[in-house]
């Protein structure tokens, strides 16, 4: 699973108010020919990213190349069950990547476009947001 090797501060605020607006950076295809673009706002966990990566790798049968364009930097904490109020912030449970509408999540290159589209379609089922498949090649 993806997580930061080292962080300046172990725990952080959730900053859920910063979800507004569209993505300006990471909104274009940069590496592959076909990509998966988010259409909504969400916090995607490292487990969800890994599940999507596994299904893409399985579909491509180890062919082509996959680029993961998001990284889970933000720690999410949780207190244990039946713990009384107070006594500080809970322990880190998992890491998330905050995603805004228009951000490219994954890219695939080096394989047939129909196979890449199918892999990204299956990966989209593993994610908690609405997405769409985009490509460099225009279909008109």
Could you characterize the architecture of this molecule?
Helix 1 packs antiparallel against helix 2. It contains two helices and seven strands; from the N terminus they run ββαββββαβ. The model has no long low-confidence stretch (mean pLDDT 92). It has helices at 46-60, 113-124, and strands spanning 34-38, 42-45, 65-68, 74-78, 91-99, 104-109, 131-135. It is α+β, with helices and mostly antiparallel strands and 140 residues long. It has a four-stranded antiparallel β-sheet, covered by helices on one side. A three-stranded antiparallel β-sheet has the order 2-5-4. It is elongated.
List keywords for this structure.
2 helices; three-stranded antiparallel β-sheet; four-stranded antiparallel β-sheet; 140 residues; 7 strands; 19% helix; elongated; alpha+beta
């Amino acid at each position: 699973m993806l997580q930061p090797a080292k962080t300046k501060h172990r725990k952080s605020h959730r900053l859920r108010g910063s979800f507004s607006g569209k993505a300006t950076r990471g909104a274009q295809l940069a590496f592959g020919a076909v990509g998966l673009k988010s259409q909504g706002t969400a916090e995607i966990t490292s487990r969800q990213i890994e599940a999507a990566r596994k299904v893409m790798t399985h579909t491509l049968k180890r062919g082509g190349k996959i680029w993961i364009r998001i990284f889970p930097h933000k720690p999410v904490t949780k207190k244990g069950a039946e713990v009384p109020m107070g006594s500080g912030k809970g322990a880190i449970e998992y890491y998330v990547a905050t995603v805004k509408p228009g951000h490219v999540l994954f890219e695939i290159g080096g394989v047939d476009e129909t196979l890449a589209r199918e892999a990204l379609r299956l990966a989209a089922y593993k994610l908690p947001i609405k997405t769409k498949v985009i490509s460099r090649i225009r279909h008109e």
